[in-house]
Design goal:
2 copies of one chain form a homodimer. The first copy, chain A, is α/β, with parallel strands linked by helices. The first copy, chain A, folds into 2 domains: 203 residues, Quinone Oxidoreductase, Chain A, domain 1, CATH 3.90.180.10; 136 residues, NAD(P)-binding Rossmann-like Domain (Rossmann fold). Chain A has 12 helices and 19 strands. In chain A, the strands form 4 sheets. In chain A, strands 3, 5, 6, 9, 10, 18 and 19 form a 7-stranded mixed sheet that branches. In chain A, strands 13-12-11-14-15-17 form a 6-stranded parallel sheet, with helices on both faces. In chain A, α12 links the parallel β18 and β19. In chain A, α8 packs parallel to α9. The two termini of chain A are 14 Å apart. At the A-B interface, β15, β16, α10 and β17 of A face β15, β16, α10 and β17 of B.
């Protein structure tokens, strides 16, 4: 089969690799129907972080079960399944706490020695605890629903998780820092699922502004840094925001978050802090801030998100604004890295 | 009148100063019955932070109202009142959120231009929003109750706040890092008020260990650093603690807190981060931590703490293990700085 391979910064290829096989009785093999490129894939692509060369790429996919190990109970060949970006047993203490990204038997697709989502098939460890079958199967799912389901494998759930970490509830006013797919999905999650009344999205990119509005942003603010902080305060009688989603992970985005938080407010952060390794403690201390951070436990959110997608009440599919076959994946990386696309779907 | 004066690192005197006067219609003047020395007073005493020279000292006191301004409604001369370490109007948005230490009209006793608690009398701004009268007055309060009330001006409420920030509830298992008065009061607050079932106190000082046990610590752990983390994990089936109070504010104490937190756990921090100005973000991110920090809004807790003291169900008074007249305050600073006393009461 073919799969995307990382050959170094800026260098992604598609190569012939071995077909995946069941190697543990809890495995499944999934034939990929759709996969995509993640903002976090760009860290290595841009050379910001190290990644093994060569290594398989991608951690977002959905597909059809092709084979299952002898201990797999909840899945059978032919099932349409959605995979979270990490596998998990869904039974350990962390999983029972809803923190499947801390699973003691967990791991990330695309990590050394594992299959990546950007390929024709994937061996999925801990299949019962990882994959969620879509009721009705592939035949009953429209192309639009398939896109919406694909978004739930990472960005839709991660954005929602940011809003959950930010303690967004009914009627809340929320600031979202980051207009990538995760930030846009935080807008959608805050509005469509958590009942936020007002969402301030910080973005100066016309396409992202438009999608932010479509996802429910009530205020789109093009300023950055101190100017953005001033605008957020102007819009909240000088008090600042009780709820902030930090969906970037840079020093600049954290400064914005800290600067526009209301005293006693909550910052929910899902941006991987590659370039903001430390947080100043005095500003949070003086302003009574609640800092909630974490790698989104997508598996925790998948069942409810799948239900909402099938009901037609939740659709993060429009984050995919560029589509191409797996063979052209290198073009997709370039487009996302150059911010010509929000998110690329591979089919 | 006489008051304690900061004359530089390691140098505290008692000097004659002007009697306090009502200068705003919202002021009260309070004759001090008891005051005390705070761990945070030691930062300047030890030369770790700068403080104006000369300046008045102390922010913890209770006493009798001597005079009130024309707009003061809830207090009258003769009332026994407890003061939180900061004044507040108790009506602004932050105060209504229970964050009186973010009051727009607030300030700290002992700051430049204000009176300190370590003196014979204090001008209290925003008296209605700051002082809480003790029902029954001075005549009905025992010496023991007076000590317990004095503790509520800062350490008792700050320790409780740490446990509240750590989201301690009924049946919780809690780790308390810091065996100063605040840490010990966090033990008491977690057990006596919030219903924690198990409290691990990290202390190697026999007197503090004993008081920690008296306040309800179920496990007293003398190890520090990596050894303390290992012990905390051993005691929790390897999982770590869901609730941690960080009551020191150093890099070492934060490392302990991060190291012994259970994935998804909450760290409530009330130690002023003078020597730990930044927090590494990756460990909290990987372990889904909730970091809650802040300057305790003592005024928020005072009414309930005073009620509990008068009912006899809550007594942090034993934190005072050394007592002396105001005249000897310099000896008190030395004793606390050298850790020969947990907390010094001045009378």
């Amino acid at each position: 089969m073919r799969a995307a391979i990382y050959r170094g910064a800026g260098h992604v290829t598609v190569e012939e690799v071995s077909d995946p096989l069941i190697t543990a009785p809890t495995d499944a093999v999934v034939r990929v129907l759709r996969s995509c490129i993640c903002g976090s894939d760009l860290w290595a692509y841009r050379g910001v972080i190290q990644r093994a060369v060569p290594s398989r790429l991608g951690h977002e996919f959905l597909g059809t079960v092709e084979a299952v190990g002898s201990e797999v109970r909840t899945l059978k060949p032919g099932d349409l399944v959605v995979a979270p970006f990490q596998w998990s047993d869904n039974t350990c203490p962390a999983c029972r706490d809803g923190l499947q990204t801390s699973c003691v038997n967990g791991g990330t697709f695309g990590a050394p020695g594992t299959d990546g989502g950007q390929g024709e098939a994937v061996r999925v460890p801990q299949a019962d605890g990882t994959l969620v079958a879509v009721p009705g199967g592939a035949e009953s799912v429209s192309e639009a629903a398939l896109r919406a389901l694909l978004a739930t494998t990472d960005v839709a759930a991660t954005g929602l998780h940011g809003a959950v970490l930010a303690e967004v509830g009914e009627g809340a006013t929320v600031g979202v820092i980051g207009d990538g797919a995760v930030g846009l999905c935080a807008v959608l999650g805050a509005r469509a699922i958590l009942g936020a009344e007002r969402v301030l999205l910080f973005s100066r990119n016309p396409e992202r502004q438009a999608l932010g509005r479509r996802f429910g942003a009530t205020d789109v603010i093009p300023e950055r840094g101190e100017a953005a902080i001033a605008t957020a305060r102007d819009l909240t009688a000088g008090l600042g925001l009780r709820h902030i989603v930090e969906a970037v992970g840079t020093e600049a985005s954290w400064e914005m978050a800290l600067g526009m938080a209301r005293d006693g407010g909550t910052i929910g952060a899902v941006g991987v802090p590659h370039t903001a390794p430390t947080l100043p403690l005095f500003p949070p201390f003086v302003h009574h801030l609640r800092i909630h951070v974490g790698v989104a436990p997508v598996r925790h959110y998948l069942p409810q998100l799948i239900t909402r997608v099938l009901e037609g009440t939740y659709d993060a599919g429009p984050v995919f604004d560029l589509e191409m076959p797996l063979q052209d994946v290198a073009l997709g990386y370039a487009a996302m890295s150059e911010r010509r696309a929000i998110k690329v779907m591979l089919s």
